Amino acid sequence: MVSCAVYQLMFSIIKLLLLVAICIAYLSMVLFTHGSLFDNQDMLILLHGGGELFISRYVTVAVLIGFTVAFFIHAQQSEATSRLDFLWKLQAHEEKEEIEHLQAYNRKLIANILPEHVAAHFLSVDKAPDELYHEECESVCIMFASIPNFSEFYVELESNNEGVECLRLLNEIIADFDELLEEEHFKWIEKIKSTGATYMAAAGLTKSARDLKNFSHVTAMADYALRLREQLEYVNEHSFNNFKIRI
Question: Which GO terms fall under molecular function for this chain's record (predicted)?
Answer without folding.
Answer: adenylate cyclase activity; ATP binding; metal ion binding
